[in-house]
């Protein structure tokens, strides 16, 4: 491991030991350079919550606070560079003379930059080396705490309160001056309005409110400070939200109110609990936050406590789990984004900046996993490699110093593999030293040969980050492996055996066998490889032209195989198979000499073998995952425009590196989000420039415990996919998001400039990203401490920003940028969409280094819905509707068990509860079936303790994981037949014409009956028997038509019903098959575990027998005794092994039985759900037919009523009555469902 590799805690606040809270005596070295500096006596301590290092000047009785989050590094002992004037301690006989000063010295690198020359170097001298070592370790751990770098808004307020009480305190009186408090909150600017606001707030809190008065430290508690914060912010928007929840105007929120709020917060993205879990969470929150105010313990949350909750870690906008190591680190390296640096040694401009060893330390401390080393021959001509920007006035640093620094810091904050990208401009002798330094300094951390499980061969994937933990990979040009053996043979034949491989490489440059090559070829070779050559590349090409194949030269003299650097970019490596005449044209003679590849360096290159990119087709044909190509940002951008799908497929297989174009002399950075969506793993950026691009980079890699590796979205890693990243289209098997954002207010407690604008930027796939300043929200009011951006009703559905379709949410991210009127950055925050929690959230603003800014935040409301195309909305609603109906039934506790519908709802409710519960079905062991077979022997106890206790069969939560129906639905592993709606519509269309004809016929029959009846009523001479006969004939005909119409509907519904039921049967059969396959997979998994652990038991048995046999032979001399003891050892260990294996088998059977129970439970639930859905389908069509029948009967009855009514009026009104009657009949027919009459078909589709 590296010299000092501290374990950086994660997801846990700093716990400060008591002796560090009390403090330690130390001498602080002055930061100002003086001729005769004098150290200052101080007391060093850490505040109780772990936010600040407090330095008390004992002479002036003043405190200085150092933010732990801004501590980059701490050094003591041999790592310290003592400042000038440190001889003061020896001259004044301070400390023990025989103990080196450096061992008691502590240097802290502190600041808002990664450039060491711009940092503050804070030096302390302690009484003993142990104290210095403890402070160095503790401060580094505390400073790199993940929670400290991802504080909630409430945590930022606690941090600010700690700063106030520790930096503004009068140490002797234990008081805080009101004047100094005002200056602090106003950021040392004079603003009379803000001063008056602060004084009024202090008066309201019954604290001293005169400018010249002081506040006792006991009075200025965090509770009072929080109330001061509320008065300054006004918090009208919180009051509105509180009132919307407090319907009864009780002035507090009960757990029922909180349950409603939590439910609303979690409503998006199906992030729903059951009602029981909502209720429990609400009660837990009430209990937790009412502890701050005893008056509300029995009631609920006041508005103050509610605001505390909204600001707290419990309501963080990101899922806190994403801050820890949360991603699968067992995939090939090509499936990760890798934090990468460009020209790491530079501290400034590409042309005039300085080279610095310190930049490597600072960049590695950010978690960066790919750093660059531009290595050149020494300007002193001493064969010592140096690092500098070639052909620039930048002064070099020694190569050996850089790699020693890399060794010390490679794994200080992350254990995952580090890649060294070498730009090699060295001759053979310098390369020999480079290779030797790599081996000597890095030792076991250096990958010197491929892993046995992942050979560097075609068709093999790259190893995973877990496979390469604590390993360093070299990216340097590599000789053709096919020629390496020839190279070795040639060396052995030409050179003395005592020479090493490295010396052979350099010495053999002087002797070349050219007997079989033409004279022009000889001249070419010597011109190319000689140090004294001055010929141009054009002349060389002309000399090379007569050669039919330059491979003739290579085959004859493999020693002189060289890898030529790309003339346009030295980042591009070249394989020996890829050198052609065009590449010779692109390099100068001097570049040939600098680009020789020695075998010693070549042998250190594995998994990251640079080659010059030709075509994607050639790369796919070669299928070498270990090859990597480097692209300038412009070249990569052109490839994305022209061959996006091919580029994406390339990045699924192998690595690529993107570097800034050469014209970025100011060390500015390109936008990495142009290249991440295409899968480019290493976007190398200039860490010395904290521009927007670097802020994106720091934001992305701050997740997953800041380990430097971020897992790519699965859509970017699927080898067989039709996904085209250039086109705005939904990704296969990925649900897009609709995102709505309302920016409500901004809180800026210590800000002297108005936060005028909030720019909301979307990054992601090319169709999802928006332009900068496209969604710019302007402040409507600013009271000096809080800005109001949206004063509409807080609970309304009006949103500031809308993103209607984010096609690949895993790749997308939001960035909030707050700026002044003139564009000055006040704060920003980068949040991946996949990590966002919707609802009312506070966004903590960060500085350019991605560190939270004191008490600066935005209150937003964010809603995230699954995007559904308009044409699929009806179908989606039909799929969702059963779930909604069943979810409503979760609140019904006393249902009739004999009611079949309620029974189905209960069953489905249990499935929902189980799906969202952390406990699988019957996860606990239901039987005490396992035998308690034990022996009294020590061997058995040892086996039980070490092998049984460590068995993976104990992990029931993983091995017996239940795959429920809801899991399958949510993951969409089995899809319904999407063609069913169109098939149902087709059946409707087929029957529609016949139905229309029958409906028209039925309509005419009704009209005819009415007309005949009306005529008969006017003709009083008509015989009664004739009228009755006509009436009977009309009724009979009408009934026949009605019956035939119902028969048509019945046939139509029967066909639709059969089709839908058949589809449901197929769908549930697929789900059953999937569940059974998952069960078989689990069985195979535990079978494999059993076999592996039984094999391990046998290995332990044999190993133990062998060990005991050796001990017996060493201690005993009597042969008989030796034989007897050997037999006894063999028997006892074999018996213990057998018992252990039997116990493992019993554990295996228990797990298997549990899996069988889970399987049967799943199948039973599936069958009930299937029966429920089929029953619902049958009821749907039965109800539709019954509804049509009812409508027809009602229509007939209405017609008969009209007949009786219209027989009574006078003839003068007959015409109008006839028209009115027909209108009533038509209106009655129009009331029939959409598949019965023409009038309704105008505005609706047939089913």
Automatic annotation (TrEMBL):
Entry keywords, A to Z: Calcium, Coiled coil, Hydrolase, Lipid degradation, Lipid metabolism, Metal-binding, Transducer
Pfam assignment, any one: PI-PLC-X
Domain of life, per lineage: Eukaryota
Stretches for region Disordered: 482-531, 1201-1222
Catalytic function, reaction form: a 1,2-diacyl-sn-glycero-3-phospho-(1D-myo-inositol-4,5-bisphosphate) + H2O = 1D-myo-inositol 1,4,5-trisphosphate + a 1,2-diacyl-sn-glycerol + H(+)
GO molecular function (one): calcium ion binding
Cofactors, names only: Ca(2+)
InterPro entries with a match to the protein in the record: C2_domain_sf (IPR035892), EF-hand-dom_pair (IPR011992), PI-PLC_fam (IPR001192), PLC-beta (IPR016280), PLC-beta_C_sf (IPR042531), PLC-beta_PH (IPR037862), PLC-like_Pdiesterase_TIM-brl (IPR017946), PLC_EF-hand-like (IPR015359)
Coiled coil segments of this chain: 1076-1118, 1152-1198
Active site: 342, 389
Name of the top EC class for this enzyme: hydrolase
Comp. bias regions, Polar residues: 522-531
Full protein name: 1-phosphatidylinositol 4,5-bisphosphate phosphodiesterase
């Amino acid at each position: 491991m590296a010299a000092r590799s501290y374990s950086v805690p994660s997801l846990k606040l700093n716990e400060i030991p008591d002796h560090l809270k009390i403090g330690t005596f130390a001498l602080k070295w002055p930061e100002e350079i003086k001729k005769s500096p004098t150290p200052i006596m101080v007391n060093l301590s850490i505040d109780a919550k772990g936010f600040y290092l407090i330095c008390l000047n004992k002479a002036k009785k003043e405190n200085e606070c150092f933010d732990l989050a801004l501590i980059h590094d701490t050094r003591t002992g041999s790592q310290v560079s003592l400042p000038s004037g440190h001889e003061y301690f020896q001259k004044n006989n301070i400390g023990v003379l025989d103990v080196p000063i450096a061992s008691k010295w502590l240097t802290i690198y502190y600041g808002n930059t990664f450039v060491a020359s711009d940092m503050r170097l804070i030096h302390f001298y302690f009484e003993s080396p142990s104290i210095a070592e403890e402070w160095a370790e503790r401060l580094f751990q505390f400073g790199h705490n993940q929670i400290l770098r991802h504080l909630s808004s409430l945590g930022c307020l606690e941090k600010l309160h700690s700063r106030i009480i520790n930096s503004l305190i009068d140490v002797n009186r234990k008081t805080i001056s009101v004047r100094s408090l005002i200056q602090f909150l106003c950021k040392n600017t004079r603003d009379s309005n803000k001063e008056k606001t602060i004084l009024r707030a202090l008066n309201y809190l019954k604290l001293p409110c005169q400018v010249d008065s002081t506040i006792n430290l006991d009075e200025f508690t965090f509770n009072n400070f929080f109330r001061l914060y509320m008065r300054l912010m006004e918090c009208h928007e919180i009051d509105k939200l509180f009132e919307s929840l407090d319907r009864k105007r009780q002035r507090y929120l009960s757990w029922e109110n909180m349950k409603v709020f939590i439910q609303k917060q979690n409503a998006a993205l199906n992030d729903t609990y059951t009602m029981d879990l909502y209720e429990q969470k609400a009660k837990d929150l009430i209990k937790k936050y009412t502890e701050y105010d005893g008056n509300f313990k029995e009631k609920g949350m006041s508005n103050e406590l509610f605001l505390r909750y909204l600001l707290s870690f419990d309501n963080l906008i990101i899922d806190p789990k994403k801050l820890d190591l949360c991603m699968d680190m067992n995939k090939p390296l090509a499936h990760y984004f890798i934090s990468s640096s460009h020209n790491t040694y530079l501290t400034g401009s590409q042309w005039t900046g300085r080279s610095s060893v310190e930049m490597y330390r600072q960049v590695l401390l950010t978690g960066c996993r790919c750093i660059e080393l531009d290595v050149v021959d020494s300007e002193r001509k001493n064969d010592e490699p140096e690092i500098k920007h070639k052909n620039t006035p930048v002064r070099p640093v020694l190569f050996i110093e850089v790699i020693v620094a890399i060794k010390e810091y490679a794994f200080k904050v992350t254990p995952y593999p580090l890649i060294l990208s070498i730009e090699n401009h060295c001759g053979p002798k310098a390369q020999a030293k480079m290779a030797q330094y790599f081996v000597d300094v890095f030792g076991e951390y250096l990958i010197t040969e491929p892993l046995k499980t992942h050979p560097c061969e075609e068709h093999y994937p790259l190893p995973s980050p877990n496979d390469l933990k604590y390993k360093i990979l070299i990216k340097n040009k590599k000789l053709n492996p096919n020629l390496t053996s020839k190279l070795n043979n040639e060396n052995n034949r030409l050179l003395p055996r005592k020479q090493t491989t490295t010396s052979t490489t350099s010495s053999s440059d002087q002797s070349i066998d050219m007997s079989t090559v033409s004279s022009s070829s000889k001249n070419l070779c010597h011109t190319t490889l000689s140090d004294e050559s001055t010929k141009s590349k054009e002349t060389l090409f002309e000399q090379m032209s007569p050669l039919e194949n330059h491979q003739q030269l290579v085959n004859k003299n493999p020693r002189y195989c060289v890898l030529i650097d790309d003339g346009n970019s030295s980042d591009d490596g070249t394989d020996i198979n890829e050198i052609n005449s065009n590449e010779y044209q692109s390099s100068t003679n001097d570049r040939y000499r600098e680009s020789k590849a020695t075998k010693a360096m070549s042998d250190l290159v594995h998994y990251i073998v640079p080659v010059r990119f030709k075509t994607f087709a050639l790369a796919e044909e070669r299928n070498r995952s270990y090859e990597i190509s480097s692209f300038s940002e412009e070249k990569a951008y052109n490839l994305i425009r022209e061959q996006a799908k091919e580029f994406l497929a390339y990045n699924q297989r192998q690595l690529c590196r993107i570097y800034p174009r050469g014209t970025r002399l100011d060390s500015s950075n390109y936008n990495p989000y142009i290249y991440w969506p295409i899968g480019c793993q290493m976007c190398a950026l200039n860490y010395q420039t904290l521009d927007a691009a670097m802020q994106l980079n720091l934001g992305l890699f701050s997740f997953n415990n800041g380990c430097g590796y971020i897992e790519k979205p699965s859509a970017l890693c699927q080898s067989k996919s039709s996904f085209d990243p250039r086109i705005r289209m939904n990704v296969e098997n990925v649900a897009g998001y609709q995102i709505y954002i309302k920016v409500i207010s901004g809180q800026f407690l210590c800000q002297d400039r108005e936060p005028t604008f909030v720019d909301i930027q979307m990054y992601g796939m090319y169709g999802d990203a928006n332009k900068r300043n496209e969604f710019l929200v302007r402040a409507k009011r600013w009271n000096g401490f809080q800005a109001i951006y949206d004063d509409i009703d807080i609970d309304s559905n009006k949103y500031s920003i809308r993103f209607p379709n984010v096609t690949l949410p895993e790749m997308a991210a939001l960035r909030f940028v707050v700026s002044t009127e003139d564009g000055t950055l006040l704060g920003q925050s980068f949040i991946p969409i996949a990590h966002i929690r919707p609802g009312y959230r506070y966004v903590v603003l960060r500085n350019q280094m991605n560190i939270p800014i004191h008490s600066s935040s935005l209150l937003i409301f964010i809603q995230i819905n699954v995007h559904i195309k308009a044409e699929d909305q009806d179908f989606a609603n039909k799929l969702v509707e059963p779930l909604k109906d069943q979810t409503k039934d979760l609140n019904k506790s006393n249902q009739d068990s004999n009611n079949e519908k309620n029974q189905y709802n209960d069953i489905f409710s249990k499935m929902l509860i189980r799906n969202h519960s952390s406990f699988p079905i019957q996860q606990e062991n239901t039987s005490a079936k396992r035998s308690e077979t034990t022996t009294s022997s020590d061997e058995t106890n040892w086996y039980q303790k070490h092998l049984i206790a460590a068995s993976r069969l104990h992990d029931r939560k993983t091995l017996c994981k239940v795959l429920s129906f809801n899991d399958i639905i949510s993951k969409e592993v089995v899809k319904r037949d999407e063609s069913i709606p169109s098939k149902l519509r087709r059946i409707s269309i087929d029957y529609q014409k016949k139905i229309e004809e029958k409906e028209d016929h039925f309509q005419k029959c009704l009209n005819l009956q009415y007309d005949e009846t009306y005529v008969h009523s006017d003709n009083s001479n008509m015989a009664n028997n004739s009228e009755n006969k006509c009436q009977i004939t009309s009724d009979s005909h009408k009934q026949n038509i009605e019956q035939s119409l119902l028969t048509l509907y019945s046939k139509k519904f029967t066909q639709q019903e059969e089709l839908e039921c058949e589809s449901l049967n197929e769908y549930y059969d697929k789900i059953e098959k999937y569940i059974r396959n998952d069960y078989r997979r689990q069985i195979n998994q535990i079978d494999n575990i059993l076999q592996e652990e039984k094999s391990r038991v046998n290995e332990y048995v044999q190993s133990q027998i062998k060990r005991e046999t050796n001990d017996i032979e060493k201690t005993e001399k009597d042969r008989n005794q030796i034989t007897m003891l050997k037999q006894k050892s063999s028997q006892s260990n074999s018996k213990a092994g057998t018992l252990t294996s039997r116990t493992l088998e019993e554990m295996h059977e228990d797990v298997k039985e549990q899996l069988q129970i889970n399987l049967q439970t799943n199948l039973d639930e599936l069958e009930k759900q299937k029966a429920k859905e089929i029953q619902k389908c049958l009821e749907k069509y039965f109800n539709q037919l019954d509804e049509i029948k009812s409508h027809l009967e009602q229509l007939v009855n209405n017609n008969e009523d009209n007949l009786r009514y219209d027989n009574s009026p006078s003839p003068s009104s007959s015409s109008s009555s006839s028209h009115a009657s027909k209108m009533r009949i038509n209106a009655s027919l129009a009331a029939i469902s959409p598949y019965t009459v023409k009038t309704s078909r105008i505005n609706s589709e047939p089913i």
